Amino acid sequence: MSTPKIAIVYHSGFGHTAVAAEEVAAGARDAGAVVELLRIQGPGDDFAPLLEKASAADAIVFGSPTYMGDVSAALKAFFEASSKVWATRGWQDKLAAGFTNSLSMGGDKSNTLGSIFTLAMQHGMIWVGTGLPPGNANGNSTSAPEAVNRLSYSTGLATQSDNASPEVTPPAGDRETARLFGARIVETARKLIR
Length: 194
Ligand SMILES: Cc1cc2nc3c(=O)[nH]c(=O)nc-3n(C[C@H](O)[C@H](O)[C@H](O)COP(=O)(O)O)c2cc1C
Known about the structure:
Number of domains: 1
Mean pLDDT: 96
CATH topology: Rossmann fold
Number of helices: 6
Bound molecules: flavin mononucleotide
CATH class: Alpha Beta
């Protein structure tokens, strides 16, 4: 059986979404995948190398901070650049998944995940959600910082950070949720490429 290849394409203006990306990568690596962490610096990047690396993966995970209730301009610019791949159906039937981090507990993160989902569907990709029950399912308070899936998202990974250093926020529960999400994407990829 070949080793699943996972590309994580993400933007992070201030380092918090980068923490989520690194935890997704750690979960995916622990599950046996080869992982490419592809960080977008800004909307003016040359996206050709990222598109090429993403195109070599079995699964592409897209991540963005939630800015003004949606993906950042930098990830949106990457999405528009991906129209070249769309034209040749280059990502057809690859796995796709999404994650976002924001300051508020809600903060309209659902809309950000919706934008990522739409991009994935335009490309003909196959969507992987968290596969996790809500954070309160095991008796925890949903908002307890150590609770897995404390924000209770199913469509994609949602993490929350306070206005503090990425070294301390998002909290432990969100980091663990991200690792479980990375592992789930690999397990799903393994089923498809068997
Ligand atoms: C331009 C801008 C818009 C933002 N809009 C939202 C928002 O709609 N909802 C929210 O909860 N937080 C919002 N925030 C807060 C960010 O989501 C939060 O600071 C997050 O940690 C940023 O992630 P990053 O460190 O990866 O850039 C916004 C921040 C900026 C700079």
